[in-house]
């Protein structure tokens, strides 16, 4: 079985270096974070993002390359359906979130150039609560088809 470029990058500890949600079959969608990411008076507030159109993943990898991830927190989902991994790419403002299958293979990965590093993940029911280094929260509904 041939693995995709996104899965190959993940296995090497890297992610595509452009804002987006990427799947191991080399499909993706553009994601844009709508502050607050960096420190400012609204620090400690919810992070929001909007999903844009599809990404040409091959073009992203050719034009933007990949960045090496630094894991800040990782652990199994409470229901045993997989794992979550969060961290950064060592530049102070970049971040990633990955959902993994129970065998730790990639289900999807998100890269953000402006959300600040994600440092912790915890769970409330079927929601993953992800915190960045300025205490901003990103809440993911794990039952949402985009993130399931």
The fraction of residues in strands falls at: over 45%
> What can be said about the biggest beta sheet?
7 strands, antiparallel
**Structural shape:** globular
Structural class: mainly beta
Fraction of helical residues = 10-25%
What gyration radius follows from the Cα positions, in whole Å?
14 Å
N- to C-terminal distance: 24 Å
Overall pLDDT confidence? 90
SS field, number of helical segments: 2
Strand order of the largest sheet: 4-3-2-9-8-7-6
The count of β-strands is 12
Please provide the ordered H/E string of secondary-structure elements.
HEEEEHEEEEEEEE
Low-confidence runs of at least 5 consecutive residues: none
Which key phrases capture this entry?
148 residues, three-stranded antiparallel sheet, mainly beta, 12 strands, 45% strand, globular
């Amino acid at each position: 079985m041939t693995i995709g470029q996104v899965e190959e990058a993940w296995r090497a500890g890297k992610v595509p270096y452009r804002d987006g949600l990427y799947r191991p079959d080399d499909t993706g969608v553009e994601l844009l974070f709508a502050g607050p990411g960096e420190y400012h008076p609204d620090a400690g507030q919810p992070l929001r993002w909007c999903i844009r159109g599809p990404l040409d993943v091959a073009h992203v990898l050719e034009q933007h390359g990949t960045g090496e991830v630094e894991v800040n927190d990782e652990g199994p989902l409470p229901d045993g359906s997989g794992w979550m991994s969060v961290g950064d790419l060592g530049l102070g403002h970049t971040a990633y979130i990955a959902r993994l299958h129970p065998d730790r293979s990639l289900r999807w990965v998100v890269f953000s150039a402006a959300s600040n590093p994600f440092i912790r993940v915890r769970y409330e029911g079927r929601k993953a609560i992800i915190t960045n280094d300025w205490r901003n929260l990103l809440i993911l509904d794990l039952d949402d088809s985009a993130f399931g």
